[in-house]
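WARN retry 2 of 3 for item q-0093 after timeout on previous attempt; input resubmitted unchanged.
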Amino acid sequence: MARRKLIYEGKAKILYDGPEPGTYVQYFKDDATAFNAGKKDVIEGKGVLNNRLSEFFMNGLQQIGVPTHFIKRLNMREQLIRQCEIIPLEVIVRNYAAGTMAKRLGMEEGTQLPRPIVEFSYKDDSLGDPLVPEEYIAAFGWASQQDLDDIVSIALKVNDFISGVMYGVGIKLVDFKIEIGRVWDNDFQRLVVADEISPDSCRLWDIETGRKLDKDVFRRDLGDLADAYTEVAKRLGVLPTNTAQMPKPTLIN
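OK item q-0093 returned
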């Protein structure tokens, strides 16, 4: 197994130094977390499924002109990605009331919103990823007003794409969150979709039955999370042939 330098380990993924300058290898773990890691478990095969699903969505976005950090899938659990500077925001797009929004506003889960709503939360687990208005983002220098306009445009394009794809396989896209990164070509900055797009970061409900096919299955103890993710991958035609555990690469300290 190749020896790699560990760059960063998060709740669901690990970043290793990439084989070429300006690249990382992103490894998908089987760890499942909820409530800012207050609830944890290991779901065998989850990382393999999320790797394939994120590859599917990132490739699809690139084909319609939405830039991402994705370069290619390397194996069952790893992707080659472009290094980027992550803007410290979670960009949330909501099509239906669910989760924290439903609680905040006293709305029934599943209520269709009059239009897609884009929210921002500050990425800090210790603070519970609080919602922040655009004025905070600009004032603290996390992103410029032009960046924010571009981020909203990107988020709505992602929403249109994923909603259409999911509707075609009988799944409702309730909401999702993405991260945005900055990449530099000489002095020119581009914004790209980063991190991942998978059932870990989306709410997905079966259109006919309302069955949840996302991480709420784990959050709310609604059944087998791997079965839910497998159903999404199966409908999209990206079901891997083997979701067995792969060992992690040997690290260089």
